[in-house]
Write the structure tokens for this entry.
Amino acid sequence: MISPLAYVDSAAKIGKNVTIQPFAYIEGDVEIGDNCVIMSGARILNGTRMGKGNKVHHGAVLGSTPQDFHYSGEESQLIIGDNNAIHENVVVARATHKGDATRIGSDNYLMDGVHLCHDVQINNNCVLGIRSMVAGESIVDDCTILSSNVIVQQHCHIGSWVLIQSGCRIAKDVPPYVIMAGNPVQYHGINAVVLEHNQVANKITDRILRHIMNAYRLVYQGNFSLQDAVLKIEDQIPMSDEIHNIVNFIKNSKGIIR
């Protein structure tokens, strides 16, 4: 299932039932798991470790050299989980330093032209829209959607179950369960529709949704400092896993978008 017109280095580790189409290019320090599809024109470069069931579309480049002035040629890695769709012209860089890795989890959907810079971490079940860019050392938690042309600046942390609408520029952390929109970007409520309809979120009842909404009302609409808003959440909102997640995220953040 490997085309004779593809270049596959003899040192590359290729799993079972892998399809490699004509004119794909795979370097030697590469591992590709079972049942992956590497389409024509894709390039899988040194340091890439890929799990099972991934589909890499035409023109994607995985494991590219970090665009970081601190990079000095070290043998870093890109680690990819299982069942990801990586579409046309996606570029994902390796980490800057040896022993570190850029990481993509499992079941993610990366649309055309997405660019992930060095040391980025994308967790599981995320959607990254057309030509969205995530700068170095940023983190995107589970089940988050970046719509088209979203720019996430370096060192930002995007929480779980977030929706960031098209064209937003993110320069600070975004807490979980919210919608962000506009330029300058602003809070536009909680991501209730996705939370209600996703099977994983069945435990999130209407009551918990109201608690999440009330917590963010204190953060974004109350005339309090962020520290005071967190204290009021802990005092006034019944605790659940979701409220703990919000509180811990804010406490650990160096600054959220307000």
